[in-house]
Amino acid sequence: MSSPTDIESVKLLLGEVNSLGSLLLEGDGNESARKALIIAAEKLVIAARTPGENLYLTAAQPFLNGSIGAAYSIGIFDCIPSDINEDVSAEEISLKTGAEEALVVRIMRVLTSSHIWVETGPRRYASNHFSRILGTPANRAHFQIQNTIVGPAAGKLGAYLETHNLRSPTDHHDTPLQYALKTPHDLWGYLKEEPSRAKMFNESMRSSAIVGAAGVPPFPFATELKCKSEDEVVIVDVGGGKGQALESIRKSFPELKGRMVVQDLPEVTKDTIESAHLPPSIETMPIDFFKPQPIHGAKAYFMRRIMHDWGDEDCKTILRNIVPSMSVDSKILINELVLPDYACERRMALNDLVMMSFGGMERTESQWTALLQGAGLQMRNIWRKPGENLSVIEAMLSE
């Protein structure tokens, strides 16, 4: 070989990959084993490559993202049949889209060599599972947001930190986002000024790429939240968007007694009401969570993926606006990532930097504890479920 490959590591990792792979194929593997297999396989690839190959492929990663973006712009996703048994030629894609055939070939070289689509012959392409996933409207929107907002902020992260005394952003109006996009607005203000991107952003929140975007939170709602009558409020979903979380909770815990209320900004609740998809058992209420909580004595004030959008001081403000409305048995339930102090998964670590680019952050258990204490609350428990990325942080009023 022209450059050294880490042969000893390759030998060790091959054994680890085989062992973990067999465990999954035999049906005895769990989520931990699946994730361990991914890590071992990635380490194997790095060990098998030369240092130069690893360096180049890492440095050139933006062009893979750019090629996916170009495929969306050209219309390639709409030209290649979703049936994996059907293929299409570069010439056919060119005729359908108006794109230069040579350009289609150059873009598809990158995408097929990255295992997004399959090259079935010279200048012929077919779909695979990955390309079909990327082609859904929500995942397409997610990737376009990554390319047009997150990507530029990531590219300017180093330069931003150099001009900010090597400190994490603490002001929502002074983050890598503003630095990269040359805007005075925070993310939400920027989206308000860019309606087409706002629509794309809202669609992207349905993407399968979003960590914990859906599903029932890992919390025993039926046993932990007890209302004496149907008139009491059992759960307030603060910043709950279109109420998807409450819908999943209501469906999974039909025995849960009490009213459920989803709160969000007026324009969001108006859209939720007009879309008329919520059942009558879930109410809507327009609020700004930077103002006092109007519902007093609810059994739970629930927030899914709200706190990670904001720095510590803003989060304390959000929590302090709820605290005066709580009764002694009220709970705050925060459905978020809890980062480990050691051996963090890459997806979680990257998500933290995505949030940093807007002025938010993901947090460890000790950071959650300190944040809650700063708002007059105490952590009671962290509820987790194997295979789930999001936990539920349970807090109550400090004694």
Automatic annotation (TrEMBL):
The active site is at 308 (proton acceptor). Residues 187-377 form the O-methyltransferase C-terminal domain. Gene3D superfamilies: Vaccinia Virus protein VP39 (3.40.50.150), Winged helix-like DNA-binding domain superfamily/Winged helix DNA-binding domain (1.10.10.10). One of its GO terms (biological process) is methylation. It holds the Pfam family Dimerisation. Signal peptide: none annotated. Keywords: Methyltransferase, S-adenosyl-L-methionine, Transferase. GO terms for molecular function: O-methyltransferase activity. Residues 70-134 form the O-methyltransferase dimerisation domain. PANTHER family: HYPOTHETICAL O-METHYLTRANSFERASE (EUROFUNG)-RELATED, PUTATIVE (AFU_ORTHOLOGUE AFUA_4G14580)-RELATED. This is S-adenosyl-L-methionine-dependent methyltransferase. It comes from Hyaloscypha variabilis (strain UAMH 11265 / GT02V1 / F) (Meliniomyces variabilis).
